């Protein structure tokens, strides 16, 4: 259902750009840390059910609810939640324990013995609750996990006993001698806890991947992929675990089976998340993942949602911010057909989300290899992108405009681009982008607007070496706008990168059309060295009163 797919993407794309402050193209799934990004009161309400009456919970969970057989009780408990829910509960509990251990260390430094003891009791209860909860919904945990569970519980009990002795004495010498012992025990608990969580998450990843590998059921496979995707959203560390356990290999097997065609979008979305880490991209290369993605993108029998998710994977693995993409040799072999398919997807996009994913992939590819710009020129990509920008239904956010102007900036190094820009009314578009402003005030959107302003100025500077483009820019009053961006810090949101780009564009236009500047502007913004003009403009916001 395209409507459901689009609504799901709105949240994902917003997360992808949250906190982005770089000057290049986007790196698609930026991993979310949803436990920290929510409102504090909402977070407290969510955690409340896990943090109250821990002692009672520990006692109750070890007793049968009724006189019925234990097997039935276990079945009732385990059927209340899905695997995904159980893992989320486990991760929340683990986050609480980790936070409590940090706070104990802080209180210990300040010799707050009463607080240390009460928090130790709470951690002890949380650990027991977490282990009981996990053992309720898992049936095949390893002997190594049971060993760490036992060691962790024993250490927590020892820790509680130690801190209890501390509150029963006021002798400073005794407390001082016990402090090192308590610190050592706390460190050991943290190590056991970290190793146990690592084993648990590895075990769950293995179980989910085994389900995907062995099941012929659409429902079971879909459920397992959904749970796997939820795990990838918990951070890069979990993505590494999944990649090391063969997650990329397993998911590409799904993408090569026609019987699972309806699961391709979900599977590709999960792959994009895993490929934010080096291990994921290495695995993708080993299983000819690029070839599979190229086949999906060029196969017209697939849905738009499938094509868009394949574009998201391409955008992720070609991100200019990843330092480990140079080994993607197979990408160059398939680049022409991938770029062709992505341009077509931009041209036929039915929504802003689809266009954003396809244009982001193209933008990243223009950084990845310079030959991509020549291919884009041959495919009339500039005309297609400029036409898309006039459709507010398709290019509807600063994020989309950021991708378009990134492509234009990278293509503008080619001499043939100037005529394409003139024919497609591109100078007018670049002028409009110099006025890009955030409507919401959201920090991610403000940063995107700065990138749009900066890259549009860079593109103008590069293209203005052509007299026809420079003449068009002057006629559209680009020079007054560039001067205002240089002189008014608020117009550029105090961005130094926008200032430098505008100074460069202004100097290029001044050479082509010196009559367009007043003498004061020429003396301050064009004639001095670039660094001197930069310092002059950055000091304009200072008050000497």
UniProtKB/TrEMBL annotation:
Superkingdom, taxonomy of origin: Eukaryota
GO biological process, one term: regulation of asymmetric cell division
GO cellular-component term (any): apical cortex
Gene Ontology MF annotations: cytoskeletal anchor activity
Residue ranges occupied by any Protein inscuteable homologue C-terminal domain in the UniProt entry: 93-545
Pfam families: Insc_C (PF19427), INSC_LBD (PF16748)
Record-annotated Protein inscuteable homologue LGN-binding domain positions: 36-80
Cited Gene3D superfamilies: Inscuteable LGN-binding domain (6.20.200.10), Leucine-rich Repeat Variant (1.25.10.10)
SUPFAM superfamilies: ARM repeat
Name by which UniProt lists this protein: INSC protein
The species this protein was found in: Pitta sordida (Hooded pitta)
